[in-house]
């Protein structure tokens, strides 16, 4: 099968340090090539791209640039235009207000799909060969937060509060000690916190690998949560709020604990010895790898090429899914 992935991103491929969606696309591409498919990319103006990638030309229409080569086009952003070949699109985020989607839109989890009045979803998966071996023995004396710290929906303040209440050290991966971002000001002088900035690659993996667990009290309906499966794979149990896709992923008592209560999360963090690092690793390895994801997308491709649709009706949203959801102290 000839597959074209489309994403207008300025981040390089393969991903260097950051880029969650870019890492998903790259893992999907690698799995599809391993299965014998011919795969190309239509990408943004990134510094480095593989030989099978073409940079998007804003002076030309999408239809013109895609042409008739692919058997299927896979957009990694909402798309509802007219093409000469079948296509699907994956929504990797949450709607920020009323909007509609194409009928062949794929979401990242059952809750993500339901929030957008859809049925079709495919869980993300990662190429675990890029993450090295987990650390399944005794971890170092800290927990971690992994996410964009400047986004209030990711709730760094909550992670700081939980770790402080649990009397646990916290390493923050994804931001600095203070931020003047347009998304809001924050400053965390807490001495039990260490900030690593926008860390990625092997440095990120090593910090997660040695962590006792992920503290992830998000305040929105997380579409999926790559930070969760990365942490699990490297042996770190997850302590999070039960919003969005998180209950679909943390669905066992030996790999994590969910609550909207900071006190309950802090109690679970304090009892981290009850969780099984080996079980965390095996669960993520077996459930959320790039090959499993590629197989699920292949079913979507086959349906659309065969003339079927992925959702009973065109998905839509009548509200923003970026509001802050409640938590309790």
UniProtKB/TrEMBL annotation:
Keywords: Transferase. GO terms for biological process: carbohydrate derivative metabolic process. InterPro entries: Glyco_trans_1. Gene3D superfamilies: Glycogen Phosphorylase B. One of its GO terms (molecular function) is glycosyltransferase activity. It comes from the Bacteria. Residues 154-286 form the Glycosyl transferase family domain. The keyword 4Fe-4S does not apply. This is Glycosyltransferase family 4 protein.
């Amino acid at each position: 099968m000839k597959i074209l992935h489309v994403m207008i991103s300025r981040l390089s491929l393969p991903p260097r340090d950051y880029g969650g969606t870019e890492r998903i696309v790259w893992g999907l591409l690698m799995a599809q090539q391993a299965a014998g498919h011919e795969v190309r990319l239509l990408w943004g103006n990134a510094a480095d791209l593989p030989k099978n990638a073409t940079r998007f030309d804003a002076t030309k229409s999408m239809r013109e640039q895609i042409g008739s080569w692919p058997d299927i086009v896979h957009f990694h952003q909402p798309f509802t235009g007219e093409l000469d070949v079948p296509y699907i699109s994956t929504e990797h985020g949450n709607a920020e207000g009323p909007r509609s989607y194409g009928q062949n839109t794929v979401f990242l989890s059952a809750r993500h799909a339901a929030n957008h009045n859809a049925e079709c979803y495919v869980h993300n998966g990662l190429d675990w060969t890029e993450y090295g071996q987990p650390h399944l023995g005794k971890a170092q004396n800290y927990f971690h937060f992994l996410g964009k710290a400047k986004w209030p929906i990711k709730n760094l303040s909550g992670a700081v509060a939980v770790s402080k209440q649990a009397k646990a050290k916290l390493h923050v991966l994804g931001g600095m000690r203070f931020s003047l971002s347009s998304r809001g000001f924050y400053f965390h002088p807490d001495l039990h916190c260490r900030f690593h900035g926008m860390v990625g690659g092997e440095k990120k993996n090593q910090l997660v690998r040695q962590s006792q667990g992920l503290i992830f009290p998000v305040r929105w309906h997380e579409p999926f949560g790559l930070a969760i499966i990365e942490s699990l794979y490297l042996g770190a149990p997850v302590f999070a709020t039960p919003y969005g896709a998180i209950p679909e992923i943390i669905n066992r008592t030996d790999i994590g604990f969910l609550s909207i209560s900071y006190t309950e999360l802090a109690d679970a963090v304090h009892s981290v010895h009850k969780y099984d690092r080996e079980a965390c690793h095996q669960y993520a390895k077996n459930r959320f790898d790039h090959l499993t994801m590629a197989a699920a997308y292949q079913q979507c491709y086959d349906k659309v090429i065969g003339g079927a649709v992925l959702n009973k009706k065109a998905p839509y949203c009548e509200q923003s899914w970026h509001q802050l959801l409640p938590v309790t102290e």
